[in-house]
Every structure is written in C-alpha cells, then in structure tokens.
Amino acid sequence: MAMGLQGAMAQAPGLRVQSQVEGLAFSPLSSLPRAPAGADGRLCGFSKPGETPAGRLVSRAGWAVTGEERLGRLQAVSFAGEFESGTSGSCAIRQGNVALFEGEQLLAIAYARPGARRSIGGVLPLEIAGQPAGLRLWDGDFLSQPLADLRAQPDGTLALLPLAAEETRCQGRAVLPNLYGRPITEARRLLQQRGWTPIPGDRANDGVGGREAALVKAGVVEVDSCSGTGFGYCRFGYRGAAGLLDVTTVGDNTVPTVSDYGVRCGGG
To answer: What percent of the chain has pLDDT above 90?
Structure first.
C-alpha cells in the first residue's frame, strides 16, 4: 500500500470502485495520503506541478505528478513518491497511485497492494472501437508496460480490469491487438490479420551480419534498426489504412518481444 494511505481511509460517498487485477487495490477515499519524505520527481523529469486543479492539490500535498487525464466528469491524476534513474534514460517509479477527483474533491485512489510485483507509474487515455473507453494504467518499471485498464461498468462501477484484448487509434481506423510481451513473430502475424502490412527495412547492412540481418533471414523483413546497447531495442514498421505503425521490441533474444508501439495517423 502506498505510504500514508492507511491514514487516509475516510470513505468518499457516491462512487463505486473495484479492482479485478491481482496486486492492485481501488478504494473510495476523501483525503490524500501523506507523501513520503523526498517525493521528488525531478530525477526522472517530473519537475512540473500539476496543471489541473486536482493535479495542483496533489502537488501541494508533496507528491510528484506523473500524469493527468479526464475520465468523463472525473479528473484522474497519477502520482508517485519514489524515483530511481536507470540506463538509457529509463526511470523506475515506486509508491505510485492514481487518484480520481470531481473538481477538487477526491473520490478514490488506485494503488499497488503490499508486496505487489509492480507499481503504478502513470496513466494514458484508452480508445476502443473508435470511442473513449477509459484509461490505461502503466507500471513504474524501468521499461514501463501497461498494467491495467480503468473502465466504467454497465452498473456505473469504475473497475480496474485486465488489459483489453484490442484497442483502436485514429478515431477507430487503426485496430491494434494487445501486443505487449509477445514475440515479434507472433505480433506481426496478429497485425497482418488486422490489415497491417510489413514495410521492408533498409537491408544495406545485411551482408555484415548483426541482429537486423538475422531477423530478415528469419522472415521479419520489416526490421528497421536495432540498438547494440542498453535494453537492446529493435524497431519495426508497418503500413495500414489508418497510417504508419512503429513497433519496438526489447531484449537480445533471437526473437525479441514487443515493449511498445505507436501509430502515426494518416502517415505513409
């Protein structure tokens, strides 16, 4: 449980919340937990105070704000109390939470349970079937990955849920399966099933070997480049009706796994 949260367990009326994700709790609250000493996000680039009224309340309480997003009538603010810089510009975020406000009134906080393997790092919008569908929580690991989806249920309950099997971008024109943690060979198959076409990369260096040449030889012709240091990132390109898709993998395995992806709507 985030530091100080047990001391802030005053119930907030009118909002039903639940967690269906192992390691995460979601509780109605009416006051912010006490920030740990030295909750300074400048080490990892979180130096600005919150931009919304709710975000500024969190900043004034001593926390470092890591994200602010709307959720219907509510304002979500992600914040954390501990940061550690790592290799290749990475950062670990610990003692992370997501607070839900209506105006400046705190209603609930999501947080990692004691002993949980992963902490909350930040929050971003989620689009499904071309419509705003809630928020996606990201973890605080050095190599951040999606942790859970925050979505409204038919009865009005706000629930932390396992990641949706599919999301959309570009107002629904780009359909993306959940690729996180999948081998690139599996990811490319799923993408092709949804209309994404591999863009052959620059093979100029094929003759001198390297990871790019090995991937091309294995049939993954869309590899664009690989890094020989740090997390061992490789980049891959795809074209679809909605635009261009960039996929990033991590690790030095023969078949690396997907760590991130993004769409450039209308590109290409």
So the answer is: 77
